[in-house]
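agent> Task received from the user: take the single chain below, predict its 3D structure, and emit structure tokens. No templates, no multimer pairing.
agent> Plan: (1) validate residues, (2) run structure prediction, (3) serialize to tokens, (4) report one or two observations.
agent> Step 1 OK, no nonstandard residues flagged.
tool_call: predict_structure(input=
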Amino acid sequence: MTLKNLIGFLIVIALLNVGSYSKCYAQKLRTDVKLQRALEDAAKNFRGDVGIFVRHLKTGKEAAIHADTVFPTASIIKVPILVGLFDKIWKKELDYRQELLYSDTLYYGGSGLMQFYKDSAKTDVSVLASLMITYSDNVTALWCQHLAGGGQTINALMDRYGFVHTRVNSRTPGREDARRAYGWGQTTPREIAMLLTKIRLGEIVSQTASDRMYRLMTNIYYDEGALSQIPGTVASASKQGMVNASRSEVVLVNAPSGDYVFSIMTKNNTDQRWTHDNEASELIRTISSLLWNHFEPKHSWKPFKERF
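)
tool_result: status=success, residues=308
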């Protein structure tokens, strides 16, 4: 090697090292150290597995705990199903106001209202989407999953958007083992938070479709968890998912100082009571309050003590 080539080689190595250092430094800058410590302290005594992801959209600052670990979604899977439904609508394979007939053969228990409809009652796609998100209706969610083309179609769509862990498992051929492990669906705290973020930014299906999906997600009946720690005058898009051993929420807050998104996911929970003071529910409220007061110190707010 000539002296000239050697010098060139050393310059390239130096530039690569500078680039690597800059990349690492930028990564450090994205971590909100104060918030990271506060989250770790809040979650340290939780009896179960917990994953958290937080990002302030304006500053890009993040905090995370097991953010890339796979968790059961429970009803949070209804967000990917909603995306699959709107993809079909955008392609004109469905119409948002398309009339449908409810059949009692579609009955499925759990949360929701459509299970109480009379056989042959008229409804439409927009009602299905609204009930699925607002009231976490299981009948309409399974119906929407079918209308969207099934779990395989929805999973391919998630893959297309770069979400490699977010999957529908139930009623999806080839995902039987995953269903036994995670239930209806699975995701990570980071992926589900970023899916909601992309909807907020108009990057899922289309800007128009994203806007309609976001509007649906700002109209949530189940507001005694994370939403109870955010002032009622502040719009927030969210979805909740709860089964015995797993309680989770994903929320995007349109805060005065800039939007922030967070997801709190739990599994293998010791406390499986269906009470307001369930340990996971308390953790979700604690973290939601912590985040509001961290990002909005000028708008500090304490929830009312009374419950309705």
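agent> Step 4: summary for the user.
The first strand starts at residue 49 and ends at 56.
agent> Done.
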